[in-house]
Structures are given as structure tokens and as C-alpha cells.
Amino acid sequence: MEKEQLHGLLYQAxxxxxxxxxxxxxxxxxxxxxxxxxxxxxxxxxxxxxxRIVLETFEKLGLDPVVETPGRKVCRHIGQSLVKAMDMxxxxxxxxxxxxxxxxxxxxxxxxxxxxxxxxxxxxxxxxGDDGKALREAHEEVEExxxxxxxHTTGWTRELWIQALGMPAVLPxxxxxxxxxxxxxxxxxxxxxxxxx
Length: 197
Ligand SMILES: [Fe+2]
Ligand SMILES: [Fe+2]
Hints:
Blueprint: H1 3-30, H2 34-61, H3 70-92, H4 95-126, H5 129-164, H6 174-177, H7 183-191, H8 193-196
The structure holds fe (ii) ion (2 copies).
One fe (ii) ion binds at residues 20, 47, 110, 113, 146, 149.
């Protein structure tokens, strides 16, 4: 495995979690639906815990968490852009529109977060010794929550859009009701939405 590339990934993962805290904080200013508010409040506290887990992993691997990397800079830029997008929606749109923008921003952020952890899991399978153990332990703690963050929020975004378009929506979304934790489960949940209406 390319050690330098692995470290680059970990710096991106740290930046993604740190950006995620800001994104959820802003998304909570935009949210209208009470169930979604509860969900995102939980995800915000889980994201804070993920930041702590990544920092712990940095310590175990002997990495300095304040080092700047090109990949990390890009992650930060994207994260800041998502916060700015929500600010624009709050300033100019209706509350419902701001909520939709926030949901889309969370899906975009969680797509990257989910990818990071999937890759950290793959590295954990290959890496040997203490480094491998540290990666596997971190991945084990975080993986399931990242599945929920991505698949459940994707469901929320779709159903809130459907509601905004004036069509019958399943709220909370099927992904949430069925406690989806895999891509195939998310596809099945989406397919079952007609029966859940
Ligand atoms: Fe996370
Ligand atoms: Fe996440």
C-alpha cells in the first residue's frame, strides 16, 4: 500500500469530519421537519465523535493533525462552499427551500465522508502491525454510522423534494423506517416507497 497516499486520505478524512461539524450546525439552522432535526442533531454529535476517533488514529500513526495537505485544502474548500450555499438559501429562499438545500448539502458532504471510511476500511484490511490495527479499530467504530448518515439523508432529501413538488411523500423516509445500512438495502427501501404511502 502507498503509505503517503494513505496519510493523504487520513488528512482528508479529518478535514471532512471537521467540515461536517460546521455543515451540520448550519443545516440545523435550515431544518424544518422535527424528525429530521432530531436525526441531524444526533449525526452532529456522531460527527464530533468521528473527529475525535480520527485524531486518536493520527496519534497512533504518529501524524500531526495540523499539517496542511493539498487534498485537505480541497476538502475544506468544498465544505466551506456547502456552508455558503446554505447561507445563500437562508438569505434568499423560503424556509422550505433552505431545508432542501441543506439536505442536498448534507448528502454531498456525507458522500465524501462515506467514501473516506470505506477506503480506510480497505486500507485496514491490507495494513499490517499497529497501523493496521489502529485503522481497523477506527473503521469498526464509525462505519455503521456513516452508512446511516448517507443512506438516510439521501432518503430524506428525495422525500422532502417530492413533498415540495406537491406529491405524496413518505416521511420519515423508508430508509429511516427500515433502518437501512447498505446500498442494496437503500435501493430496496426506495422501491418499497409506493407501498408505504
Ligand atoms: Fe463522519
Ligand atoms: Fe458522516
